[in-house]
C-alpha cells in the first residue's frame, strides 16, 4: 500500500469513530447512561413512581441510589436516601434539575431501605435484601 491509501484508510477510520461517538452521546437512553456513570456497580432495581424513578446499584457491599425525574430541566424538589439496617441514612435532597444523588452506603449483607421523591410524589422500597 502506498502512503495515500494509508491516509484514506486512516481518515475513514477516524470518521467512523467520530460518527459512532456522536450517535452514542445523542441516542436514546441518555438518562440511563448518565445514571450508570454516576453510580458504579450493577443495576439491581428500579423503583418507578408517578413523577420519576429511583435507580439502585450494588457493588461489593455498597449500595448506590439516585432519583431521576420524568421531566428534566426545571428545578424541582427531589430527594434520595439509602439506609442500612441499624444505621443512619445517607441523604441528598434539595432543588435539582436532573437528578438527586447519588448517595452511597455500606450495607454489607444487611437489609436496606431506599426512598426517593420528586415533587410531592415518593416511593419507598421497604426493607429489602440486595
From TrEMBL:
Residues 1-26 form the signal peptide. It comes from the Bacteria. Keywords: Signal. This is Secreted protein. The lineage of its organism: Bacteria, Bacillati, Actinomycetota, Actinomycetes, Kitasatosporales.
Amino acid at each position: 500500500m502506498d502512503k495515500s491509501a494509508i491516509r484514506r484508510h486512516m481518515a475513514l477510520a477516524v470518521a467512523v469513530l467520530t460518527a459512532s461517538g456522536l450517535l452514542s452521546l445523542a441516542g436514546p437512553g441518555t438518562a440511563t447512561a448518565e445514571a450508570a456513570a454516576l453510580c458504579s456497580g450493577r443495576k439491581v432495581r428500579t423503583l418507578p413512581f408517578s413523577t420519576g424513578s429511583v435507580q439502585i446499584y450494588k457493588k461489593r457491599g455498597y449500595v448506590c441510589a439516585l432519583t431521576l425525574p420524568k421531566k428534566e430541566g426545571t428545578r424541582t424538589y427531589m430527594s434520595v436516601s439509602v439506609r442500612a439496617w441499624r444505621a443512619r441514612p445517607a441523604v441528598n435532597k434539595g432543588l435539582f434539575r436532573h437528578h438527586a444523588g447519588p448517595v452511597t452506603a455500606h450495607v454489607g449483607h444487611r437489609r436496606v431501605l431506599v426512598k426517593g421523591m420528586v415533587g410531592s410524589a415518593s416511593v419507598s422500597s421497604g426493607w429489602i435484601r440486595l
